[in-house]
Specification:
7-stranded mixed beta sheet; 12 helices
């Protein structure tokens, strides 16, 4: 999966508009950057073996117990930890198309995908479709499995209501994944956390390596949960721009765009492959996500995230010209 991941800007020389990443491009990251500069000295000592100080702040934020939170080095780290810890359950499924790391992690630890699984993975909001499921659907899935892992990495990128940590804990069968990487727009500084019943967290912690989360990542999380744990400013305007982009793309012959409830959207191009479209756009300084390696999708699928109105208009026009040239 890693070679086919989005945001592979490192492969290119002159990308000026990156539509391939789902990270919100309009976030003001300067305050966090300044805070981390002032805390840079923490890298000269070991971090906490377990991130208890940050876990305490997260628990206080949601009104849950400290033992119901486990901080990880990003949501993907949590995915592999869960697959390792619960490998004895053996069978799984995933609501598709979805993030490929669920499959990859399960394969590493010898899981088998079946029609009657013990464990189910769901991404909500879902990557790459942008679909959001309501709590009733989540609880329905939880009743059908021993464990339901709900990856809410994109919860801060939608105006739809997603399940709260307290509601997830009341269910008893749900493990929630949360991504500070997405919330703080820091993909290079890995940070996430798991919320689950205390006995589940204890089992996960028993398999987790010490010093897994670096000191700067812990500081970033503490900064957020101590002072800045409100809603993302400007989200409504940003998501309105995403819908405007979707409408413009839908007006191009040869492009189809699925409905979305977040900042990114899944599209198909019919006169060419997604790889061909990606190569063309990259030559014009624009990067999209070839989505053909998501299970269940085709070589015509691609995913994009909204950026500024000016950039979105430039993308739309370049795609239009590409299709007209075919």
């Amino acid at each position: 999966m890693i070679d086919g991941h989005g945001d592979d800007i490192w492969r290119y020389v002159d990308i000026r508009m990156n539509f391939s990443t789902n990270i919100y491009g309009g976030e003001d990251t300067a305050p966090l950057g300044q805070y981390l500069k002032e805390r840079l000295h923490v890298i000269y000592s070991y971090p906490e073996p377990a991130s208890h100080s940050l876990e305490h702040l997260i628990a206080r934020k949601y009104g849950i117990g400290d033992g119901e939170v486990l901080v990880t080095s990003g949501a993907t780290d949590a995915i592999y930890l869960i697959a390792q810890t619960y490998r004895h359950l053996r069978t799984y499924s995933a609501i598709r198309p979805t993030f490929c790391e669920y499959d990859d992690a399960c394969k590493v630890f010898g899981w088998e995908e079946t029609a009657t699984p013990s464990v189910c993975w769901i991404c909500n909001p879902n990557n790459p479709t942008g679909q959001v499921w309501d709590d009733a659907h989540i609880h329905h899935l939880a009743r059908q499995h021993k464990l339901l892992i709900v990856d809410q990495s994109y919860e801060d990128y939608t105006l739809k209501t997603v399940m709260s940590p307290r509601d997830a804990l009341c269910d008893g069968h749900i493990i929630q994944l949360h991504s500070m990487t997405k919330r703080l727009c820091i993909p290079g500084l890995r940070l996430g956390y798991i919320i689950a019943p205390a006995e589940v967290i204890a089992q996960l912690r028993s398999q987790y390596r010490p010093w897994a989360v670096n000191a700067l990542a812990i500081e970033a999380g503490k900064w957020f949960f101590s002072h800045h744990a409100g809603e993302r400013r400007g989200l409504g305007t940003y998501l309105a721009e995403a819908q405007r982009l979707r409408e413009k793309l839908s007006g191009i012959d040869g492009i189809e765009v699925m409905p979305t409830e977040t900042n990114f959207m899944l599209c198909t191009v019919t006169p060419a492959t997604a790889a061909e479209l990606k190569a063309h756009l990259a030559s014009h300084g624009m990067l999209i996500r070839d989505a053909s390696n998501f299970r269940g999708l085709t070589r015509h699928h691609f995913r994009i995230s909204a950026r500024s109105a000016q950039e979105d208009d430039a993308l739309t026009e370049e795609i239009r010209q590409f299709i007209q040239s075919r």
